[in-house]
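Just wondering, does anyone understand these tokens?
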Amino acid sequence: MPQIDVPVMADEISKGQQPEYLYWVGCAGAFDKRYQKVSRSFAKILNETKVSYAVLGKEETCTGDPAKRAGNEMLFQMQAMQVIETLKTYDVKKILCTCPHCFNILKNEYPELGGQFEVIHYSTFLQSLLDTGTIQIKKEVFKNKRITFHDPCYLGRGNGIYDAPRKVIDAIDIDYTEMKRAKSFSLCCGAGGAQMFKEAEKGDKEVYMERTEDVLASGADIVATACPFCMTMLSDGIKYANKEEKLVNMDLAELIATNMDL
């Protein structure tokens, strides 16, 4: 996999530069092999559009979201305070997140601990780049394909962001279809609330299987996601249903990067 240049905050500060945005990569974006591709796609978009940004690199640690959702408030506060101290050291004002879980906790739960930042989910940011013409789309990359979008809980119901992801998809000129359970009625992928990190409880069916059935019923060739948890669960659901040859899971950043020929 070819290397791409990603500026690191410590290096930029040492050169007297103050990046406008911190790109918060997140644990999945840094360590999960599948979601690393999403991080790369978003970084390529930022580079191509000459956005002033940097990442923390090795200084980035977990936001503490999984700990808080699992009920360990003390661990969450310890992790959060460490992150806040690091961000304040670099005088960070604006944060871009590809993970709705990181986005939600940085935006809504860090302020009470002294972490006051402007936190932006990348779907909203991509929409703004498209609206201003900063992103140049190459049409017909996905000609004759149909796509649907799965709303992440922490993006949609948690923060009311429904339109931005759909406007991003609309910009790539592809046939869009909505699932029956969408927007505020969307079904969880099954991984939120720290469910990703625990064994399944007793029941008749896994949540991700139920949601995958919604995707298949839509008749889409591509299911777009905007969350690492959702990507993992729906990818598992597609494999479980033996539909890997008919249905592919792509992130919003991957869709845009592909249409920009990056």
